[in-house]
Amino acid sequence: MGLGGLSRWTLGLSLLMVGASAFLAWSGATLEGGARRAATTLLGLAIGLCVFTAFQTIPLPLGFVRALAGPNGETWAKALSAFREAPPAFVTFSLDPIATQTELARGLLYLLAFVTSLRLAERREGMRFLTTAIVVVAVALGVTALLHPALGAERVFGVYAPQSARSARHIAPILNPNALADFINIGFALAFSELLAKGTPIPRALSAAVAILLAAMQLWIASRGGVVALIVAIFLLLWIHRSARDTRAGIAPTAILVGLVTVASIGMIVLASSTEAFDEVADANMGKLTMHWQILPLLKVFPLFGMGRGAFESTYPAYRFTGEGGYLVFAHPENIILQWTTEWGILVGGIALVLVVVTLRPATALARRTETFGAWTALVIVALHNLLDLGTEIPANMLALSIAAGIVTSGSGQARKPLDTWRAHKTLIRGSAVALTAFGVFLLALHMNRELHDDRERLVKIAADPSVSKPQFYDELRQAILRHPAEPYFPYLGALRAAAPPEEKTEVVTAWVARTLERSPMHGPAHLVLARALYARVPAQARVEYRLAVTEEPAATETLSEAAPLIRSYDDLLELLPRGQARANAGSLLSALVEKRLPAASWRLDDLLLGEHENEVPVHSRRAKLLVADATAPAPYCEEGRDACYRRATEEVEHVIALKPTRCEGYTYRVDLALARGETKSAFEAFLK
């Protein structure tokens, strides 16, 4: 409920609570028999991943890192290049060691939750307690997601204001709709499984009401992947309960059909009551698939040691190869396979994925009792959803999934190997719980308020603060770069400060921009800073930088107005003309800028734009205005061919009216032409239109 556990404060509190739970849960009698092989495998995997994540944060000699992981070492080697300083002697395999430490703390939380749930789920009462707790939290999350927009709340619980622009519909404890949808689906799978199972003390009507409520909430949240995952959960649970021949007595197929129709009916009501929800569910945008395609090359770049768990956000910009549409920041690949294999490397991430799939195969869920069916289904549908969406990177979701995995794999089994006897060493387990909790809290406290987004916010403020001297700023910047060496935003801030009064040498600004573009080749703002720095000394290169800035950041089209004094010919216009989606608007702006000073160049540029976009409205409007002025002024070249000038102007005016029939502009030009020809009556009629 605390913003999904993303804050270090809530994560630390969760660690303390779960660590205490693990200590208390394993304080009872020693369990007989060995652990099930599935539980031992998942426990070993969790420990192994935590150890490897910790290894990624250990400072090692730079030469050693460069020899084993070239791209990681090269990034560290050039981290301080803009300062003209030598790189640090000891570096980590992680390209964002602070983020990796945070991920390690999260991993310890999930490990402790798994171990605790294994112990509690040994008995039916404990399993039912865990299941009920998750369902109750899912309902609470869904209800608060409904209440916040209903009450017009702009802050979560009236306290936290989201830092990024967000629709009022998505003000909720878990702000990301896809992540919230995952938790709702986990609760739904558990509630729907209780509805289908027999021999449970929970009234059927209560289970049905909760399942229907969660399904309706899922539709309100309007995550496309979440809705599909919910449908998969329904059919998967119907299949698994039928396969186990465990359907409750009295729940006939007809009753199940009625329930599904009820859910569908409520869904229609929810979608009909909210146009925004309907539009979000019906959105067919699959841009994430394009992003996944761009991420694939990273598998070859970081095959063995990965980029560092949690380092994707700062590392990915260096490998993004399409920049049209603006400079965007991607916090995650939104694909669990790509997340694990890029951050842990193909070897470790691949092995982990295979072990999870093999260990949690259907036979594991069917091997014990029906209480595990809902938990196993929750694991499956969240995994499927996270092939296209974010969810498993939210601590709240992973905490619930860790508990679900504990429910599925709990119980005693034949101790075929010494490793399976770990359940008998409760003193070791309790001691480990205390040690891991203390270590996790220490990691979180060690670099409090020094995570990537914290450093970004702090540095952008002092970069623009004249009361902070440049030496002070650069000292803060150096420390931030050493914490996040792959991040392109920090050298960009270095370029901004170097270009601020009193300006430093152009070479200094260029060095900072060069480092920015090394870490993010598609970075329009950096090109804009360089264009301004080169404006007076190298006009030709400044024009190129303006063009690149607008190509990669179409929202910055208006900045081309700054370049007007640099335009002396048609060729200069072409040097400024960007590619991509900003081309038409930028070309129209450039043509208007030089329309009076370089009319021939402006006319040629308009011809070029019309050749590319036949119905470009601003160009036709400007051309109509010029032709009407020629015909009515009169222009010297119209003296001998007045009718031809009128005819050409009329054709262009009628074209403008056809393109913009509801605007006055074209009709005004028609009035001007009629008056110039002495056709007062037709001018009056045109005026009335």
In short:
The chain is an all-alpha fold and 689 residues long. Helix content is 65%, strand content 1%.
Q: How many alpha or pi helices? A: 33
Ends distance: 60 Å
* Biggest β-sheet: strands ordered side by side in the sheet: 1-4
Alpha carbon gyration radius: 32 Å
Low-confidence stretches: 247-252, 268-275, 277-285
Strand content: under 5%
- Give the overall form: globular
Classify the helix fraction into a percent range: 55-70%
User: By helix and strand content, what is the structural category?
Assistant: mainly alpha
Mean pLDDT: 84
Largest sheet: 2 strands, antiparallel
The number of E-state strands comes to 4
Written description of the protein model:
The structure is a single chain. With 689 residues, the chain is mainly α. The protein is built from 33 helices and four strands. A two-stranded antiparallel ribbon has the order 1-4. A two-stranded antiparallel ribbon has the order 2-3. Helix 23 packs antiparallel against helix 24. The longest helix has 27 residues. The chain is globular, with a radius of gyration of 32 Å. 46% of the residues are buried. About 3% of the residues have low confidence.
Key descriptive features of the protein:
single chain, 689 residues, mainly alpha, two-stranded antiparallel sheet, 33 helices, globular
Chain-wise SSE layout:
Layout: H1 8-25, E1 34-35, H2 37-56, E2 60-61, H3 62-68, H4 70-77, E3 90-91, H5 97-120, H6 124-150, H7 177-196, H8 204-221, H9 224-243, H10 253-273, H11 275-282, H12 287-295, H13 298-301, H14 312-315, H15 336-343, H16 346-359, H17 362-366, H18 371-385, H19 395-409, E4 412-413, H20 426-446, H21 452-463, H22 470-483, H23 489-499, H24 506-519, H25 524-534, H26 539-552, H27 570-576, H28 583-593, H29 599-612, H30 617-632, H31 642-659, H32 665-676, H33 680-688
Antiparallel strand pairs: 1-4, 2-3
Helix pairs in contact: 1-5, 1-20, 2-5, 2-16, 3-4, 5-19, 5-20, 6-7, 6-8, 6-19, 7-8, 7-9, 7-18, 7-19, 8-10, 9-18, 10-11, 15-16, 18-19, 21-22, 21-23, 22-23, 23-24, 23-25, 24-25, 25-26, 28-29, 30-31, 30-32, 31-32, 32-33
